[in-house]
Amino acid sequence: MGIPAEDVERVRAATDIVALISEHVPLRRVGRRWQGLCPFHAEKTPSFSVNPELGVYHCFGCKASGDAITFLRETQQLDFVGAVEQLAGRAGIQVSYDSGREQAERGRRKVLAEAMGRAVAWYHERLLSAPDAAAARGYLRRRGYDGELVRRYQLGWAPDEWDALTRALRLPTDVLRDTGLGFVNKRNRVQDAFRARVLFPIFDAQGVPVAFGGRILPGADGPKYKNSPQTPIYDKSRVLYGLNWAKGEIVERDEVVICEGYTDVIGFAQAGVGRAVATCGTALTEQHVTVLRRFARRLVLAFDADAAGQGAAERLYEWERTHEVDVAVAALPAGSDPGDLGRADPDALRAAVAEAKPFLGFRIDRSLARADLRTPEGRARAAEAALEMVREHPSEIVRRQYAGEVAARCDLPVEQLVTAVERRGRTPIRVEAVTRSPSRVGPADLALALAVQEPESVAHLLDEALFDDDLRLAAYRALARAVTFNEALEHADPRAAELLQRLAVEEVDAEPLDVVALLAADAASREIAALEAAAGRLADDPEAFAHAAELIGWLKRRVEELRDPDMCAGSLEQLVAWLADRAEEG
Ligand code: ZN
């Protein structure tokens, strides 16, 4: 454990879970709950529900459930402490730490992030006002980057000096090294990592600066781009440039545009497409997809994934399947890059995204566009090449459709081509089997739901004796013994915890007294049945028989009274007390 329980509880209490989740999926208010499409599985009708009072969510489709901390852990791949820290940051709460080592690591990351923040500000200021940045300013202006844009993206200029940043910020050597901002050279002197480059600060999804991408000015020597190395705060295979700015629109449109460079992201934004992000000098990884999937279901690639070579298609289809995303490709005009198009032809850029095609469709289009379809031989070759691509797709249904399309476009018999792709069965398609079961909510679940959602309304009415089955009894015990809902979840066995989380978002449209009365009537009926069954064996013992008969009569009257609004409360109290005694006697 890193953070003491009291601190965790304070953070939970201060967190607006609806606001938090709304950053990922739009939620709509339904009664006292909020509902939306589940961010954890693909669905068309909402089965994801949030209870803001208890601070928990539950999906009736995929059974995902938890609180704000779980949500952050699942959506942002954070550990428990990381998630609590982030929520604490949002709520302006200072948390403490139990273990010295952990505290040291977290403190270290904070120091590095602060150093990065200072570097971003310093480089940015240099670009805006230093005389030696005139060439960089001119270059940016020519690319259509005005002052507002430069400020928005906090672009910077690293001067053509050995140690300008190091001297200005006076950062300790280890901080320079661990942020990738500087290094110790062969003469044992500290040197800046970036020199004579326009800098694009890279932020994590929360807007914390973690790295730089540095572009050289045209005509200068050296590689076009130089990027920060992997550091304790920067993991290239996870971080996406621009996500901090784009996530709102990504959620809103349920679509993210993925490009390859910083300037592409800016180009898309200039064209009015604010949902673009870029990988930072790496290929798209599965971790990137995992991160993005939490924000959107549709991934539009604004780069030539097909050119990424062998295995790219297979990987994309695999991700579509395992992460339940749709991957499409935007066909950009040949030889153009989004960075330039954003300014030169924003309509073309927007159209490319709007008309993005599924990856397989895109590949087939391109393959057929290059083919010579004028002769029978040419059409056969074109069809074979296209079918080769079709065969790579894991879904037979998809394969058959594309085979039909290829047949039509190559003017060949449909049956023959469809048969050709049928044979190559690969991974079977997964049928979306997650459906919400139309389960009737019985009185025990209703009573538990009330005990979870408005404990004060039922706590004084309920007793263990009212719960017949083990699962509900376990759930009730966990609730009754805990002070907070989270404590109950921690102490409940997994099945009971799952039940409680589901009930936390169940809509209860019933009077607490009616619910408990129903539950008590059920319990009384069970007792009556047991007494009646036993009465037969008491025929030889007139006294015991009379007592049982009397008891049955008494129970039946109480059950009758439960239906009478004036008598219900009093009768319920008597019944529950009797049932509790009975349970105690065993
Ligand atoms: Zn779900």
Label this structure with key terms.
alpha+beta; binds zinc ion; Dna Topoisomerase Vi A Subunit, Chain: A, domain 2; 27 helices; DNA Primase, Chain A; 586 residues; DNA primase DNAg catalytic core, N-terminal domain; flat; five-stranded mixed sheet; five-stranded antiparallel sheet
Please summarize what this structure is.
This protein has 586 residues and is of the alpha+beta class. It folds into five domains: 5-91, DNA Primase, Chain A (Alpha-Beta Complex), CATH 3.90.580; 100-227, DNA primase DNAg catalytic core, N-terminal domain (Alpha-Beta Complex), CATH 3.90.980; 240-362, 3-Layer(aba) Sandwich (Dna Topoisomerase Vi A Subunit, Chain: A, domain 2), CATH 3.40.1360.10; 371-423, no CATH class; 443-585, no CATH class.
Describe the protein in words:
Helices cover 53% and strands 11% of the residues. With 586 residues, it is α+β, with helices and mostly antiparallel strands. A hairpin with a 2-residue loop joins strand 1 (28-30) and strand 2 (33-36). The protein starts with a helix and ends with a helix. The structure holds zinc ion (ZN).
